[in-house]
Design brief:
CATH superfamily: K homology (KH) domain
Number of helices: 4
CATH topology: GMP Synthetase, Chain A, domain 3
Strand order of the largest sheet: 1-2-3
Number of strands: 3
Distance between the termini: 46 Å
Largest sheet: 3 strands, mixed
Number of domains: 1
Radius of gyration: 16 Å
Helix content: 40-55%
Low-confidence stretches: none
Mean pLDDT: 87
Shape: globular
CATH class: Alpha Beta
Order of helices and strands: HHEEHEH
């Protein structure tokens, strides 16, 4: 069972990451990120940040080395803006659920025609 503390941290991280991307990120590759969800580990040492690309698909996702640098930058921004004992390590994971849902929807539409 997920504790209330973990849920609060996940919500805080989601809001902060979205705000940082909106206001402080200059790299255009990351400006189209839409943060879907954040799932923190039970010990709060790490968190998975699920994102999608606005009007894009998996081919638009930056390489892992860029995501790791991006993760470090976001983590340091959070540390400077939010009072936390320890900011969890962030791992960005592309969530293609919306893209797949649109593909299925298009397929169903084509069957009805």
């Amino acid at each position: 069972m997920t504790s209330n503390r973990i849920l609060q941290l996940e919500d805080l991280l989601k809001r902060e990451i979205s705000q940082i991307i909106l206001t402080k990120v200059k790299d255009e590759r990351f400006k189209s990120f839409n943060i879907i969800d954040v799932k923190a580990a039970s010990d709060l040492s790490s968190a998975k940040v699920y994102f999608s690309i606005i009007n894009g698909n998996e081919s638009d996702v930056p390489e892992i080395k860029f995501l790791e640098k991006f993760s470090s930058m976001i983590r340091s921004q959070i540390a400077s803006e939010v009072v936390l004992k320890k900011v969890p390590k962030l791992k960005f994971i592309y969530d293609n659920t919306l893209y797949e849902a649109n593909s299925i929807d298009d397929l169903l539409k084509s069957l009805n025609e």
